[in-house]
Structures are given as structure tokens and as C-alpha cells.
Amino acid sequence: MELLAELESMALNILDVPEEGDGTLEADVARWQRLFGFEKADARRRIEEYRSDYSRVRISDELWATVKTRKEAEEYDREAYEYSLKNQPQALSPTSSATVSGTFIVQLMEPLDSPEKIKDVAGLAEAPLIVTGVGEHGQANFCQIDGGTRAKLLDWVAEHHSGFQPTIVRLTKAKKDLCSRSIAPTLAHDSTLPQNRLDDEKDMPRPSQDEYPVLYFFYGTLADPKVLKHHLNLDTEPSLVPASIQDGEVRHWAKYRALVDAPGSAKVFGSAFLVRSRDQEDALRFYETDRYEVVRCRIFTEDGVHQGLTFRFEGWPG
């Protein structure tokens, strides 16, 4: 799918989200319970997840026109039919306690109007931090949560405030969780193996989680200076350094290139780029989405070998 078509599809998905208070959610929950066998809380959770995925694939108007009469007779609407096409295995095996992995933001509003309330409802050790953003009615406050917390919040809302629909949006941001006590995660290296353990507990694996500037290796679209200039909002196209890494292999996932572990493999060639700040890194992580993870790697350039980072695909491409 070309970029323009993807953007048009995302815009239509955003416009399709029902307005708050229009009464459609409860009817949709009941429909998904009947069609897919979900419990009420699970149906609500799956609808929230599906509607927050603005990049989901839509069927064509022509296809819906062809099947509409038959599917509506079976109590499907277009949304439920699209969900069934994409998620039929999950729909046939419902679970009332499913937890969706990933990172989310939840808008603070009554009854979930403070980090302390979210902490209490979800049983967290600490209250999540507040981040400021733009909501439906202007500036708003949000808290960043994980999939487990999201599931607990939706269960609590379904039980105690069934008429309330919290605003929870999935952040499609590449994971970054660099361990300070081991080399994990490192491309094609298992940190638990004896040969990969640190010699001294005082050794600090590099790069560290919050180390900037930090050298990144790019092997796909980010190796294009025009793409970097656009996504990092740079005044001029950046200078990239020819580079390579070892122990990885690039496979194709859909139309994209995906780096996966491949111990002992030939070199992967690409470019090195010095990321100067967390803001720049965050922009790159959002670009790569949560299908990728930031991992440590050794980057080879004409100047020598450098400890750096790259984006590894989180699952094996089909």
C-alpha cells in the first residue's frame, strides 16, 4: 500500500470512531459478544484496541457492498466483519483476561482523573508520570501505561462505570530497554550464556539506556538522508557514514526490510548516524513502530569498530 493510500485509510479509520455518548458502544459490545463469544469486558477491550489501531486495513467499499446484505443478516456491521477477517482465530478462542502487549497512553478524565487513581485501580507500585498532549478538546494530560495496566483499567471501568469510554491509544514506538547489568539486548547474543556475561559486575555495558549522543546503524529506509531529514525535522540532509554490522540478516516483511538475529552470518551493509538527543531517538522509534526493538550491536566503519544501536525486528517475518 502506498503512503498516500495508507494515510487516507488512517484518516477514514479515525473518522469512523463513534462520537462519545452516541450510544453505539454498548450496542457494539453486545454485537461482539453474540458474534465472537466474548465476555462483556473482553468485548469492550477488543473494540477499544481495534479502534485505537488507526493503521488497520479496511476492506474496499466494493467488497462491503457485495457482502453487506448477507453479513448484516448474520448481525455483522462493517467493523465487526473487518475484525472477523483479520482476527478470526482470536475470535474463535475468546479469553476474558487477555492482555495486549505494547505501550499506551490514557487520557486523564473522571473517573480515571489522576495518576494516583490509575495506580490504585491497577495495583501499581508507583503512580505513572503525567505527559501533556493534545486531546479532542485541546490540551490534555495523559499517563503512559503498559498492556497489563490497560487491561486492568478496562476491566475496572466495565465493572464500575459501564457508560464511560476511556481514551486509550496505543503508542507504536519501538521498544528500548537496555539492561545496565548485562549486554541484553544485543543483536544475536544471548546475555545468559557464560561467554557473553560481563567479566566484572562493575562493567557498564555500552551504550547505556540514556546515553546521548549515540551511534545508530540503519539498513532500510532510515538510511535515506531525505527520510532522516523529514522525520528529524532537520534543516539540511544529514551526512551518513557507510557502515556494516555482523550477526544479523535482513529479511523482507511485507514491503519492508527487517533485521533479525543470524549468528555467524555475513555482514549487513548500511549507514551509521549519530543520534544526538532523546527527542531525535524518540522520533526514530515512532517511525520504526513497536514491531521493532532497539538493540546493541557493533558497528564497523572506516574509523574502526563502535558500540552502537540498531532496530531489530521483534518477530520472525512471514
Automatic annotation (TrEMBL):
Residue runs in coiled coils: none
Molecular-function annotations in GO: transferase activity
The entry's keywords: Transferase
Boundaries of every Gamma-glutamylcyclotransferase AIG2-like domain copy: 216-304
InterPro entries for this protein: AIG2-like (IPR045038), AIG2-like_dom (IPR009288), GGCT-like (IPR013024), GGCT-like_sf (IPR036568)
Taxonomy, superkingdom: Eukaryota
Keyword Transferase set for record: yes
SUPFAM superfamilies: Gamma-glutamyl cyclotransferase-like (SSF110857)
Segments traversing the membrane: none
Family: Belongs to the gamma-glutamylcyclotransferase family.
Name assigned to this protein: Putative gamma-glutamylcyclotransferase
Species: Fonsecaea monophora
